[in-house]
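Supplementary Methods, section 5.1.

A reviewer requested that the exact input to the structure prediction be made available. We therefore reproduce it here, unchanged from the version used in the analyses.
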Amino acid sequence: MRRNWITTAIAVVTALIGMQHLIQALSGLHGGGDPRLLTLEHCATAILAFIAVYGIVQGKSWSPWLLALAGASAAVLVVSLGPLLDMQPVERNGLWAGAASIAVVTALGVWYLARRVS
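The structure derived from this sequence is encoded token-by-token as follows.
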């Protein structure tokens, strides 16, 4: 896969998202008050995002799959915020829309990378 500005942008955005989840995980580990499962979800999402970035930068054929896993992990994390943080039903209204937005943007990135790989 040859890199261009779109694949570079996908890698940069994925790396930034991974960094944000890593920071959230580290703050959860240092007494941030987050439930342990949420901290683990942040760790998993960060790791998957960083592996996806590596695959994108190296032009690996498996990079679309890892990007899909990272996006799915982020979407599941958003949906799980409701029960993990014991949010009221009215507070949970936007979680599904947020997860759907993540899924759509991820699907576009995966589609583009898959086209570049094959």
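The chain has one domain: 5-117. These observations are discussed further in the main text.
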